[in-house]
Write a structure and sequence with these properties.
alpha/beta; Rossmann fold; two-stranded antiparallel ribbon
């Protein structure tokens, strides 16, 4: 009975392994074949009461983080904010900021004289969605929701935007 159970366990592991990598292979093809990435418009949800400056901050952060990751992984020939004349091989990233939580006033915790002990308990967050629109047909290749947080001494919305943009760069890397 033990030998039969062992072989059944090995068979189950092989089946799970095949299905896991099959799903990963399907997911990686969503952004494959695009050699130009354009950071398109970033809009702010009209009724959310979000400052418009965050849209510009998010667009700049997306461009900066995508270019930073592209220097290491060489995904694309070009990452820009302007649309090239030919849309073949182009994926456009469009974002919409849905909500944000402004920085809370952090208070000093721990009044120790030892460096590194104690800190600020503040937080801020931003939630946005990115659509990856690809090719001449302008079809949505991928859509990703992001909820980025920042805490402690970096409790600003700008820092949360940077972390969210870095997450989108990792999504592009994973789906290439």
């Amino acid at each position: 009975m033990g030998k039969r159970f062992g072989s059944l366990l090995v068979l189950a592991a092989v089946v799970m392994f095949v299905f896991c990598f099959h799903g990963e292979a399907v997911a990686k093809k969503q952004l494959k074949g695009y050699d130009t990435i354009v950071v398109g418009s970033v809009i702010v949800k009209p009724d959310a009461g979000i400052p418009k400056a965050y849209a510009d901050n998010l667009k700049d952060a997306l461009l900066r983080q995508l270019q930073r990751y592209n220097t290491t992984y060489k995904w694309a020939k070009k990452i820009t904010t302007t649309m090239p004349s030919s849309k073949a091989g182009v994926v456009v990233i469009e974002a919409e900021i849905l909500s944000y939580v402004p920085p809370s006033v952090g208070r000093r915790v721990g009044k120790s004289f030892i460096p590194g002990v104690g800190g600020h308990l503040g937080s801020a967050s931003i939630q946005f969605t990115c659509k990856f629109i690809g090719g001449e047909k302008a079809t949505v290749a991928l859509e990703q929701d992001v909820n980025a947080n920042s805490t402690s001494a970096n409790d600003t919305v700008e820092y949360a935007i940077e972390r969210g943009a870095e997450y989108i760069a990792k999504v592009v890397h994973k789906n290439r």
